[in-house]
Design goal:
The protein contains seven helices and six strands. With 244 residues, it is an alpha+beta fold. The protein is globular.
Length: 244
């Protein structure tokens, strides 16, 4: 079964597919400077994600009124997610490829990382009110464990006085595993295969939740860790031949 991308048709397969080719011929040291190479992408993605957030608000009301996700906005928002996933795969979210991520919203068939989301048909008006915060809440807990969280502030009362308490950021399992893989790569010249499969599996879980929370599908993400670079839900052959 393959995901149907045509507008107005319901997907007959999994709504979200996330792949990245198995790492091969990785540089021992390039990961040390990728943070510099990623700066142009980060600058562009900041603006793209601002647009993504604003358009998702528009989509919220569009679904309430029409039960449809506007096709033009859908293509743009999928492009933002696709671009971000390529940068994640290249950068410190996976370190799965040394091929520099392209600057485009479109799919790049021969690039190792791919993200596809099927264009939905009719969406539930009722679910749009609760799925992004209430229904997705258990997944948010899991994703925070995988990816970590930034610093935050809470207001507490101490000895009768109200104080603001800073909660320090913490690194998730993905960050720990990628750091370990980078050290192994530096000294042994290879990315541990089992570690790569686990990292991509956790990222795949997070991207499924992202698509659901962004109102792009009504299909609830499975509580399942699908390991490996190739999405297990993908058909046996990839049309581009780019994936193993």
């Amino acid at each position: 079964m393959s995901a149907v991308l045509a507008e107005g048709r319901r997907p007959v397969g999994p709504p979200v597919l996330v792949d990245v080719g198995a790492p091969a011929d990785l540089s021992r040291w390039l990961w040390l400077v990728k943070w510099v190479l990623l700066v142009p992408h980060v600058v562009v993605l900041v603006f793209l994600w601002i647009a993504f957030g604003a358009l998702t608000v528009v989509v919220f009301f569009a679904i309430l009124l029409t039960a449809r996700y506007p096709a033009g906005i859908f293509r743009f928002n999928v492009g933002v997610l696709r671009w971000t996933w390529r940068v994640t795969a290249y950068g410190y979210g996976v370190l799965g490829t040394d091929r520099y991520a392209p600057f485009t919203l479109a799919d790049v068939p021969d690039y190792p990382a791919h993200l596809e989301i099927a264009q939905p048909g009719r969406l539930s008006r009722g679910l749009v009110l609760v799925k992004w915060w209430l229904l997705a809440l258990p997944h948010y807990v899991v994703v925070a464990l995988f990816l970590g969280a930034g610093s935050s502030q809470t207001v507490e009362t101490v000895s009768g006085e109200t104080v603001v308490v800073d909660t320090p950021p913490y690194v998730g399992l993905v960050g720990v595993l990628v750091l370990f893989a980078a050290v192994v790569l530096l000294f042994r010249g290879r990315y541990p295969h089992g570690m790569f499969d686990l990292v991509v599996g956790m990222q795949r879980w997070a991207w499924r939740v992202t698509a659901y929370a962004a109102l792009m599908t009504d299909v609830y993400p499975p509580f399942r860790l699908d390991l490996g670079g190739r999405d297990p839900a993908r058909p046996p052959t990839h049309p581009t031949g780019a994936l193993p």
